[in-house]
Design brief:
This protein is α+β, with helices and mostly antiparallel strands. The chain has helices at 8-15, 33-50, 54-59, 63-68, 70-82, 161-164, 192-204, 207-212, 216-221, 223-235, 313-322, 339-355, 359-364, 368-373, 377-386, 471-480; strands at residues 23-25, 100-106, 109-122, 125-137, 145-153, 181-184, 243-244, 250-251, 254-258, 261-274, 277-289, 297-305, 334-335, 394-397, 405-412, 415-428, 431-443, 451-459. Helices cover 31% and strands 29% of the residues.
Length: 498
Amino acid sequence: MRRLAALIAAIACVLLLTSCSLISGLLGSSDDRVGQVVRDTMAHIIEAINDRDAAALRAMFTDYARAEYSAEIDEGVAHLLSLFPNGDVIWEDDGEPAGGGSGSIEHGKESWLGGTSDVVSSAGKKYTLSFSVFTRNTIDPENVGVFRISLNPWTESGVSGAELASCGSIGTDPRKGAPPGVFISDSGEKSHERAVAIVDALNAHDAAALKSMFTEYARTTYSAQIDQGLTYLLSLFPDGEVTLGGAPGGSAVCQRIMGDTRTVLLPTYYTVRSGGVDYRLFFADFIENTIDPTNVGIYAMGATRAAECGRCGREADLNTWADDFYVGASTRPGVFIDQNDKADAQMERIAGALNNHDAAALKRLFSRDVRDKSPDLDKGVDYLLSLFPKGGITWIQDPAEINPVDSGSYIKSGKLTEWLHGTYKLSAAGNDYWLYFSSVTVDEGNPDGVGLDRLGATPWVKNRSTDGMSGRSEQFYDWVNVTITESVDHNRVIFLPR
């Protein structure tokens, strides 16, 4: 059962919860030392567990982790050692460099984050032991050493809730990502009652019951967003008949201790079934919070169709979204809405306006800022409508694109902005077209910026490179791939061929 590390990217970016930044690669690339340090660190962790040496485990952590998260590390180490009272953990060490890593270089200084995820065994039980370690850090010298250790029950499928859940992603800047510590997952004992209550509310199509589970802060501050998200969540299960099943559920157990107060958050996954289809259900539940009493209860919730791999396809989008919820995170509470469904809903509105030749409806899809400031909006809308004189449009996500839908967000001056891009293949009157749109779905700093900020179409081409196009297709390619910035170029919001 040696090395899940055969898939370096999966280990470095998912299982170890590291976000690859600037430089990332396989062993033998930018820093050969990372693999050897990772292998040696695993050996030292196993040795300390078997020696029941809490001091040795604690000493492996970075100075920053020990100083800022001392109580959390002490509790985590004690819990870890309590699981192996006989000190009989077996790790099949082949002596070769292990794992993968990611690095960052800034002004001649560098930070290297390595890690691995291996199967270990004790008393006939198998576990997945993962860790992240800063092997070198001249950017932040207080962060050299182990940053996180995680232990999960091992399953053949790899998609139990305890294996999927995490306490957030770690990047090469340790002070900006998820916190350090020792994290022992829970196999459903702490979360089962809440999961049953959610399933009951899904079956009853009871949005009010679901909303009441959210924290006071979430309900009062983000009420409309939660309502919108719950409408989407319930739409995934129109006939109810949701049951718990498939892979067992479970949680990561994330906590913050400040003096006599503490916060305990359970990012949790369960596999549920409805209509013969498996779904992955996620929720983040503050089960204790004396640091912030207004945040007790559900903070985030979502579901999507389950993928066999557990971390691919549309489920990967849910995993990425869920990784943002951890103790101390500033991520807004809410309900997951799949980016593909968001994009398809926008495409449905665009197609409806095109089919009806409704210029006014098409312009209303644009943000108020675009409608007020774009000099060519009317001319561009007329051109777009001219491509579809008889309507009758059908559409699919663009098969010529690896990722036809993309979305993201950023926070500036404390205000959240979310964006969405979609690329589609349209068919009408025997002809095919390539359509692209970009929209802002949330803009807390400027509500007038919400809506489409770019829209255009041209006859469809499969080969998306300047070598394979000319004329309008090449112009459209250049227009789609213009560098995106935070500010809208009101002269380029709608495609007009030259």
